[in-house]
Specification:
Radius of gyration: 21 Å
Distance between the termini: 37 Å
Order of helices and strands: HHHHHH
Strand content: under 5%
Number of domains: 2
Structural class: mainly alpha
Largest sheet: none
């Protein structure tokens, strides 16, 4: 599935094709998993239709799904790399997590540049 420049405006995220692109590889040969997914969608709809508390319950469920999906993303992989860099013995202790991430980004970018230069030099 190819990302579109501005997914929130241009991408037809409500279309069947988007759901098929995500679900078909997971459910194609696993009817039991498809049944579980169908029950989950049904539960979410019942909750949403039940009123304000149900809408809140459904939102919490979707937030949990987003949180549990995160480890499978490329963003997670990048965050893990930055986190691991921040654990190094020579890394300055910082209370501000954004400052810590900024320092880790600088160090990882420098390491990637060094690796690219080293790779180019080896190919010569």
């Amino acid at each position: 599935m190819e990302p579109v420049h501005n997914e929130t405006k241009e991408w037809k995220w409500l279309s069947d094709q988007v759901w098929l692109d995500v679900l078909e590889p997971m459910l194609h040969e696993d009817p039991a998993l498809a049944d579980r997914a169908a029950r989950l969608w049904h539960y979410l709809l019942v909750e949403i239709e039940s009123g304000p508390d149900g809408v809140t319950n459904a939102a919490v469920c979707l937030e949990n799904a987003l949180r549990l999906t995160f480890p499978f993303t490329t963003t997670y992989q990048a965050c893990m790399m930055l986190f691991q860099e921040s654990l190094g013995d020579d890394f300055p202790a910082q209370k501000d997590s954004l400052a810590m991430l900024s320092e880790a980004i600088v160090r990882v970018e420098a390491a990637l540049k060094r690796a690219a230069r080293s790779h180019r030099n080896k190919r010569r």
